[in-house]
Amino acid sequence: MAPNHKLSEVSVDGGYLIRKKYPAKNGRFWLQFLVGTLLNVCIIAASVGLTMIYVNTELQSLKDQMQIHEERLAWLEGASSKQEAGEKDVPTWKDAQLRTRRDRQPQVSSGHSVQRNETHLPGYGPGNAGAALCRDGRDGRDGKDGQDGAQGPAGPAGPTGMKGQKGDPGIDTDRGSSDMMLHRRAKRDLGDGNSSLTAENQESGAHDVKPSGGETYVRWGRTTCPSDANTELVYAGIAAGAHYTNKGGSVDFFCLPSDPEWSASHKDGVNSGSFLYGMEYEVSAFDPFSHENAEFLHDRDVPCAVCRLMDRGTQHLFPAKLGCPEDWTEEYRGFLMSGNQGHEQRSKAVCVDEAPEATPGSQTSENGALLYIIEGKCGSLLCPPYVEGREIACTVCSI
C-alpha cells in the first residue's frame, strides 16, 4: 500500500505541475497578439499620415499654380483695357512682388529669425516633442483701383518770359542735305530761344512745332520710361528671344507688346522652324541689381518698355560707363547682359536697368531666352583698367 500511495502523490503532483503551465502559455500568446495588433495599427496610421501629407502638398501646389495663372490673366486684361482707353501709364508690379516676398521670404518676429512662417501653439516649442505648428494664411488679392479725384484749381500764371531771338530765314531744299539738317536743328531748339515761330504767333497762342526728334530705344527690365528725361512711353511689353539651346534662330531680343494682333491668314500649330521664347533673368550666382521694384529676379520673366525721345534725335549705349558725356541726357543705367557663352544660341547684349522689375506670376523656371550678366575677362582685354570677372555696367544716353 505504501508504494501505491507514493505513486499517487507523484501523479497528483505531476498533474498539478502540468495544469500550472497552461496559464503561462496563454499569457504569452495574448501578449504577442496585442503587440502585433499595435504594430499593425502604427503602420496603418503612418501610411495614412504620409498619404495625407502627399495629398496636402499636391493640393497646395495646384492652388499656387491657379493663383499664378489668375495673376497673369488679370495683368494681361488690365494692360489690354488701359491700352484701349488710351492711357499712357502702365501700372507697376510692385504689389505683386511684395506678395511674392511675403510668401517666399522667412519672417522675422521679436528679433528672432525663423526658417518658416510658423506659429507655435502655447505649451509647445521647437525643442519639444509633438510640437504643433500653425501656418499663417496668405493675403487676399488687391482691390480695384479707385476713381480719379476732382481736378484741383489752376495755379497762378507765371511771369512772362523774355522775347526770343528772331529765327533764321527759311531755306530751299535744293541747297543740300547739310542745310536741311541745320534748319531742322534750328526748329528743334525751341527751348533755347531759336524758335521757328514768330513773336506774333507766340503771343496769339499758336501751337508749338512738333520736335524733329523721335528715335526710340528699349528700356530692358522696366515697364516705364524715365519721367525726367523728356521721353514718352510707346508701349510696355515682355522681352523675348530664341531658346538658349538653339543653334539658329534670331540673335535679336524683342520687346513684344502685351496686346498682340494676328493676321487673318494665321494657322495655329508648329508650321516653321523659328520660334520666340520668353526671357528670364539668370542671376543665381550673383545679383548686383537694386531690388526696389522686384524682391526676387532669378528665373523671373523680363519686362520691357519702348521709349521715344521727345526733343533729341540720337541715343547710344555706353558700355562700362555710369554716366553720359557733357551735353548728353542720361536715359537710364544698369548692367550689360547677354546669353551664356556655353550655350548654343548667340545673342546681342542689352543694357538692363539697375532697378529692374519682374513679370508677376513668373517664378517658375521655364528657361527659353536667358540673360546673364557680362563680366570682364583679362587677356586680350586690357587689365588694368579692366578687372578680371568684374561686372560691366552700362548707360543709355541721348542728345
Automatic annotation (TrEMBL):
Write out the transmembrane intervals: 29-55
Domain of life assignment? Eukaryota
| Sequence ranges of Low complexity compositional bias | 148-160
Q: Report one GO cellular component.
A: extracellular space
Q: Which InterPro entries match?
A: Ca-dependent_lectin
Give the compositionally biased regions (Basic and acidic residues): 84-105, 135-147
Keyword Transmembrane helix attached: yes
Which residues fall in a compositionally biased region of kind Polar residues?
A: 106-116, 193-204
Q: Which segments carry the region annotation Disordered?
A: 79-215
Arranged from A to Z, the UniProt key words for this protein are: Membrane, Transmembrane, Transmembrane helix
Q: What is this protein called?
A: Short-chain collagen C4-like
